[in-house]
Sequence to fold (202 residues):
Amino acid sequence: MMKRLLMTTAAASLLALGSAAYAQNATTTPQPAQPPVTTPQPPASNSGGTDMNSQTTAPAPDASANATPATPPPSDAVISAQSDNEVSANKLIGMNVYNAQGDKIGTVHDILLDKDGKATGVVLSVGGLLGVGAKSVGLTWKEIDVKPEEQQVQVSYTKDQLEAAPDFKTSDQINSEMNQQQQPATPTAPSGGTSGGSTSQP
Fold:
């Protein structure tokens, strides 16, 4: 009886010790403390140690928002559309020229304007073959009849009459001819009786 009691007490003691050891292992062991994480700071700039990344640049002001709208020219100075009785210069230049009998005598080569911008005449290209060998003839503006609806110019002269007229010369051509006339003639070397400076021995 006594022996059984001792064995029961010993078993109870072993169970108690095992439970204590298990409870101690079940508890979490404290971890060593980790040092705090520090974020490296950027180096201070030379201008007062301020962080350049933290500064924001203000947008430039829009100059067009404060610009005063332009004032157009007065209405009586502006042409908003071409009228039916007007022809543009780029269409007039190159337009065919006919006489009163309907014969083609040439084309409009150029338009002459005075210092006020008023048309004073035209230069016609008369004769030639496909523009080669054509003659330039100038006529006053009153001598031509522009017909925009027919895309042509009419004159009261024949082709033979215009070919008999003097050639039209531009101011550049006249100045060039005058400069050539004013240039002194280049002296020519006198012609000698000997050539090469060698003489024949008798």
About this structure: The longest strand covers residues 104-113. Helices lie at 2-26, 63-66, 89-92, 159-164, 171-182. The chain has a mean pLDDT of 76.
